[in-house]
Structures are given as C-alpha cells and as structure tokens.
Design a protein that fits this description.
single chain, alpha/beta, five-stranded antiparallel beta sheet
C-alpha cells in the first residue's frame, strides 16, 4: 500500500483534501483482506483497491459524499451476499468492514504518512493504531497513536488502557508489516497496522534455481538480494532488478545485507559445504523464513554439524528443509514456484493444501439441481 500512502501525503502537501478508505476487518470469504486501501481524490480519481465491483463502487461513492459535505470519519460494513458476488464475479459469504477517513489540509496524517513512507523505504518500522469505530458520545473515532521502534509514542487513543493494549500489538506487527484489530466491551474498535520495508528475498546462491526463484520473487513484488562467491553469478547484468548483488564468502554474507524480520532467505548454493556455511550464517539473522535446498540426507548431515557447533534443536526446527511445497517440481522454474509458494504461505498464514472443493459440496449442488427438475 506504499503508493496509496505516498499519494495521500502528496495530496495533503498540495493542500488537496482526500479520503483514505481502509479494510480494517473481514469475516468469511472476501476479495481483499485487512490493510487494503483505496485513496479517493477530490476529483474522483483513486489509488489502490478494495477488491473492485460494487463494494469498491459504494465505498468510492461514500468517500465522494464525505468530500462534498465535509463530513467526519465513518465506519461501514458490507455484506457480500450471493447476488452481489455473482454479479461482480466475487467470492461470496463474507463481510468487509471499512474505515473511511477524510483528510484535510491540516490533517495529522501528513506527519504520520511521512513516517510510514520512511519505514517503507528502509527506515525504522512503525506501528499505527486508529480508533475506527466508537460510540458517538465517546468522541474517540479517528484517534491515532503512532509507535516508533525505539518505544517513542505520538498521540493517544483516549485512555491509558487503550494505549497500552495498542502499543503491545503495534510492537508485534510493526516489524512484519501485518495488522490486527481489537474491540472493547464499550463498543470501541481499534485497528493496528505495522509498516516496514516490502518483503525481501535474499537468495544465497545465484545458480539456476536461485535465478529462477529471484525472477519469480521480483515479479511478485519482493525486493531481491543476491549473494554468491562468484562474480559471474552475482552481478547487475544477471539480476538487473536486484537491490543488491553481493560477492562474498558464504560464511559472512549476512554482514553485507540489512536482514530484518520481513526477509525470506533461500539457501541454494552449488554444494554441500557452501550450503553448510550459508545456513549457519542465515541462522544468525532475524529473517522470518530460512529455507535450505537439497535432499533430506544432505540437510540432516548439515544439521548434525550445526548441532555440534552449538546451534539449538529448536532453532534448526525453524528452518524449512527440504525447501518448498511438494508440487512435484523438477525444473528450476518449477522449483522456484514451489519455493515461493511456501514463502507466500508463511507470509500470509496459509496452510499449503489444495483449495479444491470436497465432493460433498458438489453432491449438495447436484441434489438441489435434481430437486428443481422434479418440481
């Protein structure tokens, strides 16, 4: 959502009002999840998406009305029934909850947005808590709290209890760029977002599988780092999209890269000895995901040495080895799909199974169809 925040800041700097619509919660099957954003400018144009179709159209219309009437912020829910889903080609049965925030020239969001952009560009991660739903008499709707990684806090949600609860969540989501919401018994709902660098893939080994994986990750919007001890396999010509191409020994590669908890490391060097060193180095980082190429036998040999070196069993259990999901891939490009599928699963919280409907769903449809024929 970096481009949405950037455009919001530009609009405010140019003294142009706009409305930021954010998905703050979902239930069931929905076309977008929490954190998705749409910015509506005063001329009616927009940046970002809430999933398209009539959902986005209705939110866009509400935003335009806000700008026209100079209204305050609003919390809205939207139930996607089967008729709406069929008309717009969306999945059905879910509910989306939106927070619409009109922003004028003096909006506090200008400073907050600048902090968020800095986090996206490699600065310190930040957590932003917003009261997105509250009884009118509370006067808290739209209250914001910004948490910096060093613990500094700007703003308040209106009570020490709310602030402390939001700060605890903000610390958890800031580093990984995720989001959470919570509600209180008196009807206040708070949405907490984390903002950090885009997901980053660090490929340790620029050979065939490393190249295919990096290519795919780049097309998926990941920043890419490449490490190899051979300059012909780690250079800007071979990886023109890479943010960094590092030529160094595999036992010290982590010293040349800024690895954070939104980084995914793929160890795919050209041999057992190099994989061994590269993995040991990866285990010293804060990377969210570490995957190791190779057979189970080779990986266990590497594990045995690392255990002797003092690496804990719990730490080794965090490594994805052999790397990837079992899709039967053989070619480098197929292995890349397997690897990136597992990384996406880790990042998005998926389960890795097939989405195919079970037979009883089809049988139920067939039975209903048969009933209509008989009638």
């Amino acid at each position: 959502m970096k481009e949405v925040i950037e455009e919001a800041v530009r609009q405010l700097e140019d003294e142009q009002p706009c409305v930021l619509a954010t998905v703050v919660r979902t239930k069931g099957s929905t076309p977008q999840k929490a954190g998705s954003m749409l910015l509506v400018r005063q001329d009616g144009s927009g940046v970002g998406t809430l999933g398209g179709g009539c959902v986005e159209g209705d939110i866009w219309y509400a935003a335009r009305e806000m700008l026209r009437n100079h209204n305050g912020p609003e919390f809205k829910d939207y139930y996607l029934n089967e008729d709406i889903a069929a008309r717009d080609g969306l999945v059905c049965g879910g509910t989306m909850y939106f927070y619409l925030e009109p922003m004028w020239e003096s909006s506090q969001f200008l400073n907050i947005g600048s902090r968020v952009i800095d986090a996206y560009n490699g600065g310190e991660p930040v957590g932003l808590a917003t009261v997105v739903n509250a009884p009118e008499e509370s006067g808290r709707l739209g209250a914001k709290l910004l948490l910096l990684l060093d613990g500094a806090v700007t703003g308040t949600l209106g009570s020490e209890e709310l602030d402390n609860r939001a700060i605890d969540i903000a610390r958890r989501v800031a580093d990984v760029g995720s989001s959470e919401s919570f509600s209180t018994e008196d009807g206040i709902e708070v949405f907490v977002e984390g903002f950090t660098t885009p997901p980053t893939l660090a490929v340790i080994g620029g050979g065939h599988v490393g190249k295919a994986t990096a290519d795919l990750a780049n097309s998926l919007g990941y920043r890419v780092f490449i490490v190899d001890d051979r300059p012909e396999f780690s250079n800007a010509e071979r990886f023109p999209y890479a943010e960094q191409t590092v030529v160094t020994s595999y036992d010290r590669w982590f010293e040349d890269l800024a690895i954070n908890v939104n980084t995914f490391v793929v160890v795919a060097t050209r041999g057992h000895r190099f994989d061994d060193m590269a993995l040991e180095s990866a285990l010293k980082t804060r990377a969210r995901y570490i995957g190791l190429m190779g057979s189970m036998r080779k990986n266990l040999m590497i594990y045995r040495r690392l255990l002797n070196q003092g690496v804990t069993l719990d730490r080794l259990k965090e490594v994805h080895a052999p790397i990837g999901l079992d899709i039967g891939g053989l070619q480098p490009e197929e292995l890349a799909v397997s690897i990136m599928a597992e990384i996406i699963m880790t990042r998005r919280g998926g389960k890795g199974g097939s989405l195919q409907m079970e037979d009883w769903y089809l049988e139920r449809v067939a039975d209903r169809f048969q009933d209509t024929i008989e009638v």
